[in-house]
Structures are given as structure tokens and as C-alpha cells.
Design a protein that fits this description.
Length: 168
């Protein structure tokens, strides 16, 4: 699948940790925070903040979508089962986790091609490191990209604004 100009996020499919195909269509109407993660990275403690956002906003239509990536410093070694076990045991994560992906280059996930192509201001800019975050609104529009240095708690007000828009 190639990213087309008129393509919708909801046409994209990914694989979950059990190798089941997940269609983004199931997330229509929800606010999403899509994150490329790693278990042995300087930013790995952000899992705690991501879980806090999920706990705070999930009931109102918010999802954190976790895409482990081993492209940066080989910071996501191990199988998806080992990664999932680490995240659940160490950070008590409950948000959806997907198969490991590439976010740049020849084997780049169609999801990340889409996110980078539809991001305002940084069109097609490469992902620089683990824990880059994309905020997506209820209509599948990429609203903002956050660098790995931006802690999840700093994103809460942007999530709140999007969720309030939906309730008006």
C-alpha cells in the first residue's frame, strides 16, 4: 500500500502483538497519540506518562497506540512478547501495543509514511528518535508532532482541547 494524497488514516492496517490485522477504521471518532517506543532508551520512563494520559482520558475517547521500533540505537531489542512483558511488568501499561516497525527508510511502516506526509509544517521529515509522538484528532487528521523530549504530561492540555471539541 502506498500513501496517496487523498488517503485517509482509516484505510491503514497494522498488526497487533498477536499478529492480528487491526484496521484504523476502528479508531474513527477517537483522539489518538501514536508513539514509536523502545524499552532500553533514555526516554523509556515516558511509558509511565503515556499510561497516565491513557488512564485520564481513555473513557472519553482517547487511545495511546504503541509501536515499538528498533531503528534508533537498537533500543528495542527482543521479541514483541518480551517488549510487551517488560512494559506491562515495569510500567503497568494497558494501552494497545503493536508489532515492531520501522519509522524511516525502505521498510518504513505505511502508518509512519502517512503521519509524516500529513503533518503540518514538517512534511516528510524523518523521525529522529524513539518516543516521537503524533496527536491525531477524531477525524484522522494529524494535529501535532512532539519530539521525544516532550514529556507526555505536557500533551494533556492538547488532548483535552480535542476531546472538548468533540463534546460540543
Amino acid at each position: 500500500m502506498r500513501v496517496e494524497v487523498n488517503m485517509s488514516l482509516y484505510q491503514i492496517r497494522v498488526e497487533d502483538i498477536n499478529n492480528h490485522v487491526v484496521e484504523f477504521e476502528q479508531y474513527r471518532g477517537k483522539v489518538l497519540l501514536i508513539v514509536n517506543t523502545a524499552t532500553e532508551c533514555f526516554f523509556t520512563p515516558q511509558y509511565e506518562g503515556l499510561q497516565a494520559l491513557y488512564d485520564e482520558f481513555h473513557e472519553r475517547g482517547f487511545e495511546v497506540l504503541d509501536f515499538p521500533c528498533n531503528q534508533f540505537g537498537k533500543d528495542a531489542p527482543g521479541s514483541i512478547e518480551e517488549i510487551d512483558e517488560f512494559c506491562v511488568d515495569k510500567f503497568e501499561t494497558t494501552f494497545p501495543r503493536f508489532q515492531k516497525i520501522d519509522v524511516n527508510g525502505e521498510d518504513e511502516s505505511i502508518l509512519y509514511t502517512y503521519l509524516k506526509c500529513h503533518e503540518k509544517g514538517f512534511i516528510n521529515q524523518k523521525i529522529k528518535w524513539n518516543f516521537t509522538k503524533f496527536l491525531v484528532d477524531q477525524n484522522g487528521r494529524v494535529i501535532k508532532r512532539y519530539s521525544p523530549r516532550v514529556k507526555p504530561e505536557k500533551i494533556a492540555k492538547d488532548i483535552e482541547k480535542l476531546l472538548q471539541k468533540n463534546n460540543r
